Amino acid sequence: MRGNPLDKQADCLATHADVVSYKCMRLTLTTTITAMHKQATHIINTSFAGRYRLIGTEKGCKKANNTERRGIFNFRVIGAFALFFALSFATLVNAVPLTLSAAVPIQRIAQLGDATISADGRQVADWVASSLDNGELDFFIIDKRNALVHIFNADALLLGSSPVLLGAARGDDSVPGIGVRPMNKIAAFERTTPAGRFIAERGKNTDGEEIVWIDYDAAVSMHRVRPFVKAERRLERLATQTPADNRISYGCVNVPIRFYETFIQPLFRKSRAVVYVLPEIKSIEEVFGLAVAGRDLSSPTSLPLDPAPSQP
Asked: Which residues of 55-67 are buried (b: 16+ CB within 10 A; e: fewer)?
Protein backbone atom coordinates (compact mmCIF):
# COMPACT_ATOMS: atom_id res chain seq x y z
CA MET A 1 0.00 0.00 0.00
CA ARG A 2 1.24 3.25 -0.85
CA GLY A 3 0.88 6.72 0.68
CA ASN A 4 2.28 8.63 3.58
CA PRO A 5 3.26 6.76 6.76
CA LEU A 6 0.14 7.92 8.65
CA ASP A 7 -2.12 6.50 5.92
CA LYS A 8 -0.24 3.20 5.99
CA GLN A 9 -0.45 2.99 9.79
CA ALA A 10 -4.16 3.78 9.80
CA ASP A 11 -4.85 1.18 7.10
CA CYS A 12 -2.87 -1.46 9.00
CA LEU A 13 -4.67 -0.70 12.26
CA ALA A 14 -8.09 -0.86 10.56
CA THR A 15 -7.25 -4.17 8.88
CA HIS A 16 -5.87 -5.59 12.15
CA ALA A 17 -9.01 -4.56 14.02
CA ASP A 18 -11.20 -6.27 11.42
CA VAL A 19 -9.18 -9.48 11.63
CA VAL A 20 -9.24 -9.54 15.44
CA SER A 21 -13.00 -8.91 15.43
CA TYR A 22 -13.75 -11.75 13.06
CA LYS A 23 -11.36 -14.13 14.82
CA CYS A 24 -13.25 -13.43 18.02
CA MET A 25 -16.50 -14.22 16.19
CA ARG A 26 -15.09 -17.52 14.98
CA LEU A 27 -13.89 -18.43 18.47
CA THR A 28 -17.29 -17.57 19.94
CA LEU A 29 -19.12 -19.71 17.37
CA THR A 30 -16.80 -22.66 17.94
CA THR A 31 -17.06 -22.43 21.72
CA THR A 32 -20.86 -22.11 21.62
CA ILE A 33 -21.42 -25.11 19.34
CA THR A 34 -19.04 -27.28 21.37
CA ALA A 35 -20.72 -26.33 24.64
CA MET A 36 -24.17 -27.06 23.18
CA HIS A 37 -23.00 -30.47 22.03
CA LYS A 38 -21.61 -31.39 25.46
CA GLN A 39 -24.70 -30.15 27.27
CA ALA A 40 -27.11 -32.04 25.02
CA THR A 41 -25.10 -35.24 25.40
CA HIS A 42 -25.19 -34.89 29.17
CA ILE A 43 -28.96 -34.39 29.13
CA ILE A 44 -29.53 -37.47 27.00
CA ASN A 45 -27.28 -39.63 29.18
CA THR A 46 -29.05 -38.43 32.32
CA SER A 47 -32.49 -39.02 30.79
CA PHE A 48 -31.76 -42.56 29.69
CA ALA A 49 -30.14 -43.40 33.02
CA GLY A 50 -33.46 -42.49 34.64
CA ARG A 51 -35.28 -44.76 32.24
CA TYR A 52 -33.08 -47.70 33.34
CA ARG A 53 -34.32 -47.28 36.89
CA LEU A 54 -37.98 -46.90 35.91
CA ILE A 55 -38.25 -49.88 33.55
CA GLY A 56 -36.61 -52.40 35.88
CA THR A 57 -36.70 -55.46 33.60
CA GLU A 58 -33.89 -56.95 31.57
CA LYS A 59 -35.89 -56.58 28.36
CA GLY A 60 -36.77 -53.04 29.22
CA CYS A 61 -33.14 -52.17 30.01
CA LYS A 62 -31.97 -53.60 26.71
CA LYS A 63 -34.67 -51.67 24.87
CA ALA A 64 -33.77 -48.47 26.67
CA ASN A 65 -30.08 -49.07 26.05
CA ASN A 66 -30.68 -49.50 22.31
CA THR A 67 -32.86 -46.41 22.22
CA GLU A 68 -30.17 -44.45 24.04
CA ARG A 69 -27.47 -45.53 21.63
CA ARG A 70 -29.56 -44.60 18.63
CA GLY A 71 -30.43 -41.21 20.16
CA ILE A 72 -26.86 -40.40 21.12
CA PHE A 73 -25.57 -41.56 17.74
CA ASN A 74 -28.14 -39.48 15.86
CA PHE A 75 -27.47 -36.40 17.96
CA ARG A 76 -23.72 -36.73 17.65
CA VAL A 77 -24.00 -37.02 13.87
CA ILE A 78 -26.17 -33.92 13.76
CA GLY A 79 -23.83 -32.13 16.17
CA ALA A 80 -20.81 -33.04 14.09
CA PHE A 81 -22.41 -31.61 10.96
CA ALA A 82 -23.43 -28.49 12.86
CA LEU A 83 -19.90 -28.07 14.20
CA PHE A 84 -18.42 -28.62 10.73
CA PHE A 85 -20.63 -25.98 9.12
CA ALA A 86 -20.05 -23.56 12.00
CA LEU A 87 -16.29 -23.87 11.68
CA SER A 88 -16.47 -23.52 7.90
CA PHE A 89 -18.60 -20.41 8.24
CA ALA A 90 -16.28 -18.95 10.87
CA THR A 91 -13.23 -19.61 8.68
CA LEU A 92 -14.95 -17.92 5.74
CA VAL A 93 -15.94 -14.97 7.90
CA ASN A 94 -12.37 -14.69 9.13
CA ALA A 95 -11.14 -14.28 5.56
CA VAL A 96 -13.70 -11.61 4.65
CA PRO A 97 -11.95 -8.58 6.22
CA LEU A 98 -8.98 -8.90 3.87
CA THR A 99 -11.28 -8.87 0.86
CA LEU A 100 -13.38 -6.00 2.19
CA SER A 101 -10.33 -3.95 3.15
CA ALA A 102 -8.89 -4.36 -0.32
CA ALA A 103 -12.18 -3.47 -2.00
CA VAL A 104 -12.85 -0.27 -0.06
CA PRO A 105 -11.33 2.62 -2.05
CA ILE A 106 -8.99 4.87 -0.10
CA GLN A 107 -9.11 8.48 -1.24
CA ARG A 108 -5.61 9.92 -1.55
CA ILE A 109 -4.45 13.36 -2.61
CA ALA A 110 -1.16 14.59 -3.97
CA GLN A 111 1.36 15.89 -1.46
CA LEU A 112 2.00 19.42 -2.71
CA GLY A 113 3.41 21.11 0.36
CA ASP A 114 3.23 24.90 0.02
CA ALA A 115 3.75 24.83 -3.76
CA THR A 116 1.57 27.02 -5.95
CA ILE A 117 -0.16 24.86 -8.55
CA SER A 118 -3.08 25.74 -10.80
CA ALA A 119 -6.54 24.30 -10.12
CA ASP A 120 -6.27 21.99 -13.14
CA GLY A 121 -2.80 20.87 -12.10
CA ARG A 122 -3.96 20.13 -8.57
CA GLN A 123 -7.02 18.22 -9.81
CA VAL A 124 -4.97 16.03 -12.13
CA ALA A 125 -2.34 15.41 -9.44
CA ASP A 126 -5.02 14.39 -6.93
CA TRP A 127 -6.70 12.17 -9.53
CA VAL A 128 -3.41 10.40 -10.26
CA ALA A 129 -2.76 9.93 -6.53
CA SER A 130 -6.24 8.52 -5.94
CA SER A 131 -6.63 6.37 -9.05
CA LEU A 132 -2.98 5.21 -9.20
CA ASP A 133 -3.12 5.98 -12.92
CA ASN A 134 0.69 6.24 -12.91
CA GLY A 135 1.13 2.67 -11.68
CA GLU A 136 4.55 2.43 -10.05
CA LEU A 137 6.08 5.22 -12.14
CA ASP A 138 7.05 8.77 -11.25
CA PHE A 139 5.03 11.34 -13.15
CA PHE A 140 5.18 14.84 -14.58
CA ILE A 141 2.48 17.46 -14.99
CA ILE A 142 3.20 20.07 -17.65
CA ASP A 143 0.96 23.10 -17.23
CA LYS A 144 0.91 24.86 -20.59
CA ARG A 145 -1.19 27.83 -19.49
CA ASN A 146 1.31 28.68 -16.77
CA ALA A 147 4.41 27.34 -18.57
CA LEU A 148 5.44 25.12 -15.64
CA VAL A 149 6.52 21.53 -15.13
CA HIS A 150 5.88 19.69 -11.85
CA ILE A 151 7.67 16.43 -11.00
CA PHE A 152 6.15 13.86 -8.62
CA ASN A 153 7.43 10.56 -7.34
CA ALA A 154 5.33 7.41 -7.65
CA ASP A 155 3.54 8.24 -4.37
CA ALA A 156 2.39 11.65 -5.67
CA LEU A 157 4.87 13.61 -3.59
CA LEU A 158 5.92 16.81 -5.35
CA LEU A 159 9.69 16.78 -5.92
CA GLY A 160 10.16 20.05 -7.78
CA SER A 161 8.78 22.59 -10.22
CA SER A 162 10.31 24.77 -12.89
CA PRO A 163 9.34 27.18 -15.65
CA VAL A 164 9.57 25.76 -19.16
CA LEU A 165 9.41 26.91 -22.77
CA LEU A 166 6.68 25.44 -24.95
CA GLY A 167 5.35 25.37 -28.49
CA ALA A 168 4.84 28.83 -29.96
CA ALA A 169 1.30 28.07 -31.16
CA ARG A 170 -1.70 27.49 -28.94
CA GLY A 171 -3.38 24.14 -29.39
CA ASP A 172 -3.75 20.69 -27.84
CA ASP A 173 -3.09 18.49 -30.86
CA SER A 174 -0.17 17.82 -33.17
CA VAL A 175 -0.60 18.05 -36.92
CA PRO A 176 -0.58 14.53 -38.42
CA GLY A 177 2.81 13.64 -39.88
CA ILE A 178 4.61 16.60 -38.33
CA GLY A 179 7.26 14.37 -36.80
CA VAL A 180 8.79 13.49 -40.17
CA ARG A 181 8.66 16.93 -41.76
CA PRO A 182 11.70 19.22 -42.00
CA MET A 183 11.54 22.00 -39.47
CA ASN A 184 11.59 24.69 -42.14
CA LYS A 185 8.37 23.16 -43.49
CA ILE A 186 6.49 23.56 -40.20
CA ALA A 187 4.20 26.58 -40.23
CA ALA A 188 3.95 28.87 -37.20
CA PHE A 189 0.42 27.76 -36.33
CA GLU A 190 1.55 24.10 -36.33
CA ARG A 191 4.14 24.55 -33.58
CA THR A 192 2.01 23.16 -30.77
CA THR A 193 2.82 21.13 -27.66
CA PRO A 194 0.20 18.34 -27.65
CA ALA A 195 -1.88 17.74 -24.54
CA GLY A 196 -2.50 14.25 -23.18
CA ARG A 197 -1.08 11.34 -21.26
CA PHE A 198 2.26 9.97 -22.47
CA ILE A 199 4.69 7.30 -21.40
CA ALA A 200 8.01 9.12 -21.66
CA GLU A 201 11.41 7.50 -22.15
CA ARG A 202 14.93 8.78 -22.55
CA GLY A 203 16.53 8.71 -25.96
CA LYS A 204 18.82 10.65 -28.29
CA ASN A 205 18.28 13.01 -31.16
CA THR A 206 20.23 13.07 -34.42
CA ASP A 207 22.92 15.23 -32.78
CA GLY A 208 23.53 12.58 -30.10
CA GLU A 209 22.04 14.73 -27.35
CA GLU A 210 20.30 12.87 -24.54
CA ILE A 211 16.65 13.88 -24.41
CA VAL A 212 13.31 12.57 -23.10
CA TRP A 213 10.76 11.51 -25.70
CA ILE A 214 7.23 12.62 -24.84
CA ASP A 215 5.61 11.86 -28.19
CA TYR A 216 8.09 10.16 -30.52
CA ASP A 217 5.82 10.11 -33.58
CA ALA A 218 5.30 13.88 -33.34
CA ALA A 219 9.01 14.44 -32.56
CA VAL A 220 8.07 16.17 -29.29
CA SER A 221 10.64 15.83 -26.55
CA MET A 222 11.71 17.39 -23.26
CA HIS A 223 15.31 18.58 -23.16
CA ARG A 224 17.71 21.17 -21.87
CA VAL A 225 17.10 24.68 -23.15
CA ARG A 226 19.16 25.45 -26.26
CA PRO A 227 20.18 29.13 -26.25
CA PHE A 228 21.84 28.99 -29.66
CA VAL A 229 19.79 31.64 -31.43
CA LYS A 230 20.34 34.85 -29.47
CA ALA A 231 17.36 36.59 -31.04
CA GLU A 232 15.03 34.03 -29.44
CA ARG A 233 16.21 34.98 -25.91
CA ARG A 234 15.30 31.58 -24.52
CA LEU A 235 17.23 31.97 -21.25
CA GLU A 236 15.71 35.39 -20.65
CA ARG A 237 12.22 34.04 -21.30
CA LEU A 238 12.72 31.34 -18.67
CA ALA A 239 13.87 33.94 -16.15
CA THR A 240 10.81 36.21 -16.37
CA GLN A 241 7.92 35.91 -13.92
CA THR A 242 5.24 35.76 -16.60
CA PRO A 243 4.33 32.76 -18.80
CA ALA A 244 3.31 35.09 -21.62
CA ASP A 245 6.76 34.98 -23.25
CA ASN A 246 7.46 31.26 -22.76
CA ARG A 247 5.97 30.21 -26.09
CA ILE A 248 8.88 29.97 -28.51
CA SER A 249 9.65 26.33 -29.43
CA TYR A 250 8.43 24.15 -32.28
CA GLY A 251 6.58 22.00 -29.76
CA CYS A 252 9.28 20.60 -27.49
CA VAL A 253 9.48 21.34 -23.77
CA ASN A 254 12.63 23.31 -22.94
CA VAL A 255 13.82 22.98 -19.34
CA PRO A 256 16.54 24.96 -17.50
CA ILE A 257 19.81 23.04 -17.70
CA ARG A 258 20.35 22.78 -13.95
CA PHE A 259 16.80 21.57 -13.30
CA TYR A 260 17.07 19.01 -16.11
CA GLU A 261 20.34 17.57 -14.80
CA THR A 262 19.21 17.60 -11.15
CA PHE A 263 15.75 16.07 -11.49
CA ILE A 264 14.94 14.81 -14.97
CA GLN A 265 18.13 13.16 -16.15
CA PRO A 266 18.63 10.92 -13.04
CA LEU A 267 14.97 9.89 -13.06
CA PHE A 268 14.90 8.73 -16.66
CA ARG A 269 18.21 6.92 -16.41
CA LYS A 270 16.56 4.43 -14.05
CA SER A 271 12.99 4.24 -15.39
CA ARG A 272 10.27 5.60 -17.61
CA ALA A 273 7.69 8.11 -16.35
CA VAL A 274 4.16 9.21 -17.11
CA VAL A 275 3.80 12.75 -18.48
CA TYR A 276 0.47 14.55 -18.24
CA VAL A 277 0.41 17.61 -20.49
CA LEU A 278 -2.50 19.82 -19.45
CA PRO A 279 -4.65 21.25 -22.25
CA GLU A 280 -5.04 24.96 -22.88
CA ILE A 281 -8.15 24.83 -25.08
CA LYS A 282 -9.87 21.55 -24.23
CA SER A 283 -10.96 20.56 -20.73
CA ILE A 284 -8.96 18.18 -18.55
CA GLU A 285 -12.02 15.89 -18.38
CA GLU A 286 -12.05 15.69 -22.16
CA VAL A 287 -8.34 15.00 -22.45
CA PHE A 288 -7.78 12.62 -19.51
CA GLY A 289 -11.25 11.23 -18.79
CA LEU A 290 -10.79 11.69 -15.06
CA ALA A 291 -13.59 9.24 -14.25
CA VAL A 292 -11.49 6.40 -15.70
CA ALA A 293 -8.84 5.01 -13.33
CA GLY A 294 -6.05 2.46 -13.57
CA ARG A 295 -5.21 2.74 -17.26
CA ASP A 296 -2.77 0.45 -19.00
CA LEU A 297 0.80 1.71 -18.82
CA SER A 298 1.50 0.60 -22.36
CA SER A 299 2.14 3.53 -24.68
CA PRO A 300 0.02 3.90 -27.83
CA THR A 301 3.27 4.14 -29.75
CA SER A 302 6.64 2.72 -28.77
CA LEU A 303 9.36 5.22 -27.95
CA PRO A 304 12.61 3.77 -29.33
CA LEU A 305 16.01 4.89 -28.10
CA ASP A 306 17.28 5.18 -31.68
CA PRO A 307 18.24 8.67 -32.85
CA ALA A 308 15.45 10.64 -34.48
CA PRO A 309 14.76 14.28 -35.32
CA SER A 310 13.74 16.49 -32.43
CA GLN A 311 12.19 19.92 -32.60
CA PRO A 312 13.92 22.67 -30.62
From this structure: eeeeeeeeebeee
> What CA–CA distance (Å, rounded) separates 274 from 197?
7
Residue 125 · residue 114 · CB < 8 Å: no
* Beta carbons within 10 angstroms of residue 238's beta carbon: 22
User: How many whole angstroms separate alpha carbon 196 and alpha carbon 144?
Assistant: 11
CA distance linking residue 177 with residue 153, whole number of Å: 33
d(CA 94, CA 25): 8
Burial class, 287, CB count within 10 angstroms (exposed 0-12 / middle 13-18 / buried 19+): buried
Segment 94-124, tens digit of pLDDT? 544 433 334 445 578 999 999 999 999 999 9
Amino acid at 160: G
Rounded to an integer, what distance in angstroms lies between the CA atom of residue 61 and that of residue 213? 95
- CA-based nearest residue to 197, from 139, 277, 259: 277
pLDDT in the model for residue 107: 75
3-class state of residue 41 by DSSP:
helix
Do 130 and 109 meet the contact criterion of CB atoms below 8 Å apart?
A: yes
